[in-house]
Amino acid sequence: HIQKKWNEMDKSIIIYLMLLPFVSCLAASKNDGSIVQKNQHQIDSLETAASNPGNIDALYLSHYIWATTLSEGPMEWQDMPEDGITGFAYRVSITTAEIYKNLYYEKVTFGEEGSGKKIVFLKEIDLEKELNLFGEQSSDLKFVDWLDYNSFVITVSGNKYQIDITESDGYSIKKRK
């Protein structure tokens, strides 16, 4: 019962923080009905996404509650923009629940001048399977740095690893010295 209460509070806090910029914009817009209507639609969409557990946006929201590290790599610009998308970047996130850490990567697309960012996918790298780590062995997981737009370095359990995101949005891992 207590855990359920905390989850409801977490959800309320996130919704509040996400809505704050829209509400302040509503207050600043005064009598311009088009801006008010547009922002009200965005607020309604966010509330719906956060309250629907089957919605992919709700999954992202629950992921970011536990994020302790989030790093975006260099932007990769496309030569031929398509559907308003002029480029993309990958992001790495580390989540922490008690002493256990998990590693994720995601792809984010954007429009002109980096505007209109959209998360395309979020994938977990299974450290237990990939590096034979168990339980609390992941507790010292750290993001180190980006090597390129699709390559980054982590340290975990006293070792350094390079992770390369492949063309098919999969990944490969190799141990570094």
Topology (SSEs and partners):
Layout: H1 2-28, H2 33-51, H3 56-65, E1 67-72, E2 76-82, E3 85-97, E4 100-110, E5 118-125, H4 127-131, E6 142-148, E7 151-156, E8 159-165, E9 171-176
Antiparallel strand pairs: 1-3, 2-3, 3-4, 4-5, 6-7, 7-8, 8-9
Helix pairs in contact: 1-2
- Percentage of β-strand residues: 35-45%
Number of helices: 4
| Class of secondary structure makeup | alpha+beta
For the largest beta-sheet, the strand count, sense and barrel status come to:
5 strands, antiparallel
Order of helices and strands: HHHEEEEEHEEEE
Radius of gyration over all CA atoms, rounded: 19 Å
What is the 3D shape?
Answer: globular
Q: What's the total count of β strands?
A: 9
Q: Alpha-carbon distance between the termini?
A: 48 Å
Overview of this structure, please?
- The chain has helices at residues 2-28, 33-51, 56-65, 127-131, and strands spanning 67-72, 76-82, 85-97, 100-110, 118-125, 142-148, 151-156, 159-165, 171-176.
- The chain is of the alpha+beta class.
- The chain is globular.
- The termini are far apart.
- Residues 1-7 and 22-55 have low confidence and may be disordered.
For this entry, give a set of tags.
disordered N terminus; 5-stranded antiparallel beta sheet; 4 helices; 9 strands; 177 residues; 4-stranded antiparallel beta sheet
